[in-house]
Design a protein that fits this description.
This protein is α+β, with helices and mostly antiparallel strands and 292 residues long. The chain folds into two domains: 62 residues; 152 residues, Histidine kinase-like ATPase, C-terminal domain (Heat Shock Protein 90, 2-Layer Sandwich), CATH 3.30.565.10. It contains six helices and seven strands; from the N terminus they run αααβαββαββαββ. The chain has a five-stranded mixed sheet, covered by helices on one side. A two-stranded antiparallel ribbon has the order 1-3. A hairpin with a 3-residue loop joins strand 6 and strand 7. The longest helix is centred in the first third of the chain and has 81 residues. The protein is elongated and about 125 Å long. The relative contact order is 0.09.
Length: 292
């Protein structure tokens, strides 16, 4: 391009010296036109480069925010894992020492029951960590899933939590309901939500009740777990899906369960909502799109 301009300027000088005005005007016009086009091309190219840089900067800023969030969660995760693992272990060690030294069967039985409670809590915490790890590192496996069968598996495994109060369990889910999704992840969601309904049931009520409803259409699976339990305070509703958050002073869980549920629902490109009123109960509603 520079050679073209130099040639144009040289020709213009020659035309001036030879007094060829008309040809000079034509050559000058061509040179200025090409020059203007060249400037426009440079400006458009620069604009495109600037836009690419801006897009890259925006993308980089977003990734930095995500990385900061991950680092914050990792710090919290490491602290809480060490704390929540060491707590039950320290309790078990102390109780074992009491049993070893005790000469009272009643005291020994009491300590053994406490040890059992601590091991169950420890097992639940480890299971939550494993579920969280599997969800983040394993691919989605799509298969036909019999939803009622999974619900039956979950409720059967939780019958021991009924204690001395009969909980009314209502299952409104067709036996023949089959849905294309990830079976393992769906079971984790249902296990956590139904388990929570059992844990936080209000035993002061004459008829403790848990209701599981599910339905599907061509595009999605919808299900809800509703109870008339102790409920969640309105100030806690927005926080219950945060890592290690415990919603009430009666919380007996790890604080990871609902966080795991939300992470899995997001992985399946679904949605989860909660409605709750203190002393009245809670309802968790989940929508999961069908996977090809």
């Amino acid at each position: 391009m520079m050679v073209f301009f130099l040639a144009g300027y040289g020709a213009s000088i020659a035309l001036v010296l030879t007094n060829q005005v008309k040809v000079l005007l034509i050559v000058t016009g061509v040179v200025f036109f090409v020059g203007a086009f060249f400037v426009l091309l440079v400006v458009m190219t620069a604009k495109s480069d600037i836009e690419e840089i801006q897009d890259s900067s925006t993308s980089l800023a977003k990734k930095n925010e995500e990385l900061e969030k991950i680092n914050t969660e990792l710090d919290l995760f490491a602290y809480r894992v060490s704390h929540d693992l060491r707590g039950p272990i320290a309790s078990i060690r102390g109780l074992i020492e009491i049993v070893r030294l005790s000469k009272s069967k009643e005291e020994s039985d009491f300590c053994l029951e406490k040890i059992k409670t601590s091991t169950i809590k420890l097992d639940g915490f480890i299971q939550d960590i494993l579920d969280l790890s599997r969800n983040s590192r394993t691919e989605i496996i799509v298969e036909p899933v019999e939803v009622r069968s999974i619900i039956n598996e979950v409720t059967d495994s939780l019958k021991y939590m009924d204690h001395d109060r009969k909980i009314e369990l209502l299952l409104n889910c067709p036996e023949a309901l089959v849905f294309q999704t990830d079976r393992v992840r769906l079971k984790i969601i249902l296990t956590n939500l139904i388990t929570n309904a059992f844990k936080y049931i209000d035993h002061s009520k004459a008829k403790p009740r848990i209701e599981v409803l599910c339905a599907r259409n061509s595009a999605s699976l919808n299900f809800s777990i509703k109870d008339n339990g102790i409920g969640i305070h309105e100030d806690h509703i927005e926080k219950i899906f945060e890592m290690f958050f415990r919603g009430t002073d009666k919380s007996v869980g790890t604080g990871l369960g609902l966080y795991v549920v939300q992470e899995i629902v997001c992985k399946l490109k679904g949605q989860i909502q909660v409605k709750s009123q203190i002393h009245e109960g809670s309802e968790f509603t989940v929508n999961i799109p069908a996977l090809a």
